[in-house]
């Protein structure tokens, strides 16, 4: 035979498949296939598998403990507590503990899932040819079979310790979001239903800061008042005035159509909440001839001669009325609180 050598580019390509079979191909760009599967120590030694199972369970348990710590932080640390933590310096104890515990809870769930997948779940690589988007019945059946096989290979049925601790960690983590609802603020309880008005509280003129007397309010005029004892410099002044703001007008008694309104007035002076019953805007536009007041936000209009009923606009109910009288000093005073909660009609939605 001739000793002439075959060009290297023309040598046949030897290809080993994932099942170990050897194929020969003349195509130098042929798919080399997947390397032979190498079993892990956990696949061969049940004791190693048990160690991995305990490690995963430990991570899920640490996640549960971190979630409990997250919730406990809300109870233990006040919002304004500042602590020194090296190297961060002075930080909020609440924010630092919340970030640390929530981060740990999520990290250990992720780390446990990754360790579980790398050591105990099946790691055999499978190559599948592309198929049409709409699967055939055979493919669907194969998918369900593969899913069942995957569930079996994950050992979630046999590894009860992992399964139970994982479910516990996943069940506790959402509680962090429930606790975060506290940041929306304290529950209003009955604060929205009550104001500072009470029997015996004098009506203080918002302009002069002196008690209002009947002679200060003439027919057709509009006055604004606040409860006696409310300090404009107090930190909660705006909060309290947002509920207790009061407007007064004097109407000829014969022009008042509503009997209860007439009984709750004093010599034709009627007192109503200044807070619109639509979305809580302040009412300040008064039409003397018609006795109508107009909300500047959405044009809700109320008739002060007829129980402050709504005659136009989106407001849902009349303005609450305050029963007033005169004390022994001749000053106007409240004879109780408003007859119903002020502002938007949250209380009607029961």
Automatic annotation (TrEMBL):
The keyword Ribosomal protein is annotated on this UniProt entry: no
Principal location listed in the UniProt entry: membrane
Keywords: 2Fe-2S, Cell membrane, Disulfide bond, Electron transport, Iron, Iron-sulfur, Membrane, Metal-binding, Oxidoreductase, Respiratory chain, Transmembrane, Transmembrane helix, Transport
A GO CC term attached to the entry: plasma membrane
Keyword Membrane: yes
InterPro entries in UniProt: QcrA_N, Rieske_2Fe-2S, Rieske_2Fe-2S_sf, Rieske_Fe-S_prot, Rieske_Fe-S_prot_C
Subcellular location field: Cell membrane
PROSITE patterns in alphabetical order: RIESKE
Signal peptide boundaries: none
UniProt region (Disordered), positions on chain: 1-40
Positions of the Rieske domain: 269-333
Gene Ontology MF term list: 2 iron, 2 sulfur cluster binding; metal ion binding; monooxygenase activity; oxidoreductase activity, acting on paired donors, with incorporation or reduction of molecular oxygen
Necessary cofactors: [2Fe-2S] cluster
Topology term for the membrane: Multi-pass membrane protein
TM annotation in the entry: 55-76, 96-117, 161-181
Subunit description: The cytochrome bc1 complex is composed of a cytochrome b (QcrB), the Rieske iron-sulfur protein (QcrA) and a diheme cytochrome c (QcrC) subunit.
Protein family according to the UniProt entry: Belongs to the Rieske iron-sulfur protein family.
Primary role: Iron-sulfur subunit of the cytochrome bc1 complex, an essential component of the respiratory electron transport chain required for ATP synthesis. The bc1 complex catalyzes the oxidation of menaquinol and the reduction of cytochrome c in the respiratory chain. The bc1 complex operates through a Q-cycle mechanism that couples electron transfer to generation of the proton gradient that drives ATP synthesis.
Protein name: Cytochrome bc1 complex Rieske iron-sulfur subunit
Species of origin: Streptomyces globisporus
């Amino acid at each position: 035979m001739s000793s002439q050598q075959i060009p290297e580019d023309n040598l046949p390509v030897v290809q080993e498949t994932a099942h170990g079979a050897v194929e020969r191909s003349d195509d130098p760009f042929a798919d080399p296939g997947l390397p032979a599967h190498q079993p892990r120590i956990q696949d061969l030694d049940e004791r190693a598998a048990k160690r991995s199972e305990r490690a995963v369970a430990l991570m899920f348990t640490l996640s549960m403990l971190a979630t409990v710590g997250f919730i406990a932080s809300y109870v233990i640390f006040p919002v304004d507590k500042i602590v020194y933590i090296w190297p961060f310096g002075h930080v909020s104890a609440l924010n630092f503990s919340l970030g640390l515990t929530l981060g740990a809870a999520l990290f250990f769930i992720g780390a446990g899932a990754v360790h579980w997948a790398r050591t105990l779940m099946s790691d055999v690589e499978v190559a599948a040819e592309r198929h049409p988007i709409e699967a055939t019945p055979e493919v669907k059946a194969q998918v369900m079979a593969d899913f069942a096989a995957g569930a079996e290979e994950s050992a979630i049925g046999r590894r009860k310790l992992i399964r139970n601790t994982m479910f516990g960690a996943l069940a506790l983590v959402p509680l962090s979001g429930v606790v975060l609802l506290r940041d929306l603020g304290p529950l209003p309880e009955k604060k929205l239903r009550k104001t500072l008005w009470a029997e015996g509280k004098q009506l203080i003129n918002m302009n002069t800061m002196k008690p209002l007397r009947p002679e200060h309010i003439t027919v057709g005029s509009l006055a604004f008042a606040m409860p006696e004892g409310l300090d404009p410099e107090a930190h909660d002044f705006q909060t309290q005035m947002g509920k207790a703001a009061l407007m007064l007008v004097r109407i000829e008694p014969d022009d008042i159509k509503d009997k209860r309104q007439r009984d709750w007035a004093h010599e034709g002076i009627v007192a109503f909440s200044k807070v619109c019953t639509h979305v809580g805007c302040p009412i300040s536009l008064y039409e003397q001839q018609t006795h109508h007041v107009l909300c500047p936000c959405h044009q809700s209009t109320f008739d002060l001669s007829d129980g402050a009923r709504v005659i136009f606009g989106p407001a849902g109910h009349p303005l609450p009325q305050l029963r007033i009288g005169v004390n022994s000093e001749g000053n106007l005073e409240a004879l109780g609180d408003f007859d119903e909660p002020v502002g938007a009609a949250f209380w009607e939605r029961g």
